[in-house]
Amino acid sequence: MNKRKYRIELEETVRYRRSAIVETDLSEDVFNSLLDVAQRSDHPDDVEMKLENRGVKVIIKFSNSYSSPFDSEIEIDDYEEV
User: Fold this and answer.
1) What distance in Å separates the CA atoms of residue 42 and residue 27, rounded to the nearest whole number?
2) Is 27 helix (H, G, I), strand (E, B) or coil?
3) Is residue 30 part of a domain?
4) Is residue 33 in some structural domain?
5) Which of 64, 40, 63 is nearest to 51 (CA)?
6) What is the pLDDT of residues 47-57, one digit of tens each?
7) Rounded to two decimals, what is the model's pTM?
8) What local confidence, expressed as pLDDT, does residue 32 receive?
């Protein structure tokens, strides 16, 4: 029996849940609008920066640890013989 070699391509999706504590005197409507803008960020640090730029005080920052995802999914996209 001949052995064959394959290259396997996969996509890994990893999700993290993070929280921060903030303080603000913005109204709830304005704060919600700001959160809508902030959630279009690419990184938790960007969210903090957008909040702080609007006068929101970040008391406890989002964690930057990538060691413990709360969800992970792997999907094999393709394979081919090499």
Assistant:
1) 25
2) coil
3) yes
4) yes
5) 40
6) 999 999 999 99
7) 0.73
8) 97
Query: 34 in a domain, yes or no?
Result: yes
User: pLDDT tens across 5-58, in order?
Assistant: 999 999 999 999 999 999 999 999 999 999 999 999 999 999 999 999 999 999
Residue whose token pair is 């008391």: 59
Q: Is there a domain that residue 69 lies in?
A: no
Give exposure, 33-68, as e/b (b: 16+ Cβ within 10 Å): ebeeebeeeeebeebbebbeeeebebeeebeeeeee
- Structural domains of the chain, count: 1
Given a contact cutoff of 8 angstroms between Cβ atoms, the answer to whether 71 and 12 are in contact is: no
Range of the domain at 50: 18-63
